[in-house]
Amino acid sequence: LNTELRLEILVWMMKISEEFAFKRDTYHNACYYFDMFLALQTLNKSNNKKSEINLKDKTELKLIGLTCIVISAKLEEIQLPRLKEYSELLSNKYNINTIIEMEKRICSGLRWKLTVITKNTWLSWYICQWDLFIDTVDDIKKKLLDFIPEVEILYFKHPDNNSYYNFRKICQLVDIMTLDFHSYYYEPRLLIAVSFFIIL
Known about the structure:
Layout: H1 3-19, H2 24-46, H3 58-76, H4 83-89, H5 96-109, H6 119-136, H7 138-147, H8 161-179, H9 188-199
Helix pairs in contact: 1-2, 1-3, 2-3, 3-5, 6-8, 6-9, 8-9
């Protein structure tokens, strides 16, 4: 799969997730399904097995991306859009039955291993651990503040504007990492640790 085309599809998937106000987990899981399913298709093609997916057809890739969002939303969201609403996003080029068939194909191709630990999973864990650490270790806070008076200790989950800003900043950094296929070369928790280092 061409990396520019993959980037375009993932950005489109991100916009759909925002349009339906889906959780970040929904988007990140869908990206994982998309990449893994296409990797399997490429592997099958290289093993001289028949592959029906045209990796250069943007509309077909959008169908796969949208279906990955449908699957992920079923696992993560409480309220789901109707399949007709999804179909309209593809300008009705594919009907509801096509989406259902692609859903079966993706789930089967992934062997129903749909619960995954993504970068976003690690991000949530690190954020909670960091805020808990800062709240419980007063001595370190005092030493830091005494040593460098202008330093501000960052929070991510506190109910204030600074924490929300820090949270949004690190989330955007992780989303950008997801768009680059090379991020799969590194462990997700390592990338999140690097993100924390950058933000802190």
